Amino acid sequence: MSMAGIGYKVIISGAIKGCQLLLGVGSSLLLARWLGASGYGAYSFAFVLASLLAIPAQLGWPSLLTREVARLGPADLAQLAGALRTSFRWVSWSSLAMVMACLGIGYVIGGKLAGQDASTLYLASALVPLTAWIGIRAAALRGLEHVLQAQLLDGILRPALFLLILAFLIGRHLSPATAMFAQVLATFVAFTVGTVVLVRVLPSGIRRIPPDAHRAAEWRRSMYPFMLVSAAQVLTTQADLFALGLVSDASEVGIYKVATMVGTQVGFAVWLVNAVFAPRIVKFHRHGQHEELQALLSKGVRFALIVAAPAAACIVAFGRPALEIALGEQFGPAYWPMVIIALGQLIGVSAGPVGMLLGMTGHERGVARILTLCGLSSVVLTLVLASKYGPFGAAIAASASLILSRVMLRALATRVLRRS
Predict the structure, then answer these.
(1) Sorting pLDDT into bands at 50, 70 and 90, what band is 1?
(2) Which residues contact 307 (CB under 8 A, 6 or more apart)?
(3) Given a cut of 50, is residue 345 above it in pLDDT?
(4) Which of 84-88, 145-149, 274-278 has the lowest mean pLDDT?
(5) CA-to-CA distance for 46 and 110, rounded, in angstroms?
(6) CA-to-CA distance for 372 and 379, rounded, in angstroms?
(7) What is the DSSP letter of 118?
(8) Which of 32, 114, 43 is nearest to 323 (CA)?
(9) Which of 28, 170, 214, 222 is the most buried (most CB within 10 A)?
(10) Residue 119 to residues 115, 123, 136, 394: CA-CA distances in angstroms?
């Protein structure tokens, strides 16, 4: 593919990411405004629980399936059919186990969510298989080089449908349970559309060929490292909210969710750097151009800080009045957790695109170990600090773990560059 083609895809991917961000923030603001801190906290806790359980439900198949579909292509339809069928069957069985776990958690702690019954958690259990199935549908589309369709599936279609359903429900009876039902409905429609798109782009004749799954044992060995990386990523981004929900009431969960929703946008600069610089990092590393690679990384840090620093400054300067105007005075306490998270993100941005560098140069296992360690430390710190200081303690725990992960990734990247 030409550089112009790569640039075009980067621009389109950036636009999709921006639309996804706007849709996510828009739906979150609507929910927070109409459900209040307590109701929004109950919904957020259930949604995070479903997101966490979807990781073991997927068994690492999304990344593995993308690799296998891209490698096999139309050259071996039997193995391609075997990979698709095996992934769906295994993910379905693991999803069933995770659904039972979600229902069990709902039965045990459902009444704890600030007087909300367990219906929100019960409805969230339906998200586990749907999210897992969407993951493997999108992975197959990426492997078949339909990357934009894969991004549109979960990045635009699902949140857009959710926002439309929420807009319809506002002014009627919007509760945490009905909001979760809207999320389940939007996810089901996105999964159905994804299935139709995948069937249409699969190589012709694949449905008439008996699936060949003789490499199932090899796939089983390969999927666990991918699952570890996915679990590490989710641990570092969502496990703190789940841990807060275990030691605090739903209103504090809602306040913290708003704080993270706004504060973490400072880190969007890193995604921009990754999207723009990734092809050149791979090129410089492959050709041994170490000085050029180091200069590129330094340029990436400067670019990211130019974007992130003003965003963090705006949050510090205007965050409190903006929260109270947009969401009401009950969300005013989200200001200081939001500031702590934004400043932590800014410090993390200053480390540069080290995670992407290590992933692109074959050190993804090291990245997974570091992210897992820091994610677990975030959970432990949140349980300790949030039980005494609430959302403020959870923000300190999350920021400390993020900074620790960036320091460790930076140190690993420095060693890698020195050895190469």
Answers:
(1) very low
(2) 268, 269, 272
(3) yes
(4) 274-278
(5) 9
(6) 11
(7) T
(8) 32
(9) 28
(10) 12, 6, 28, 26
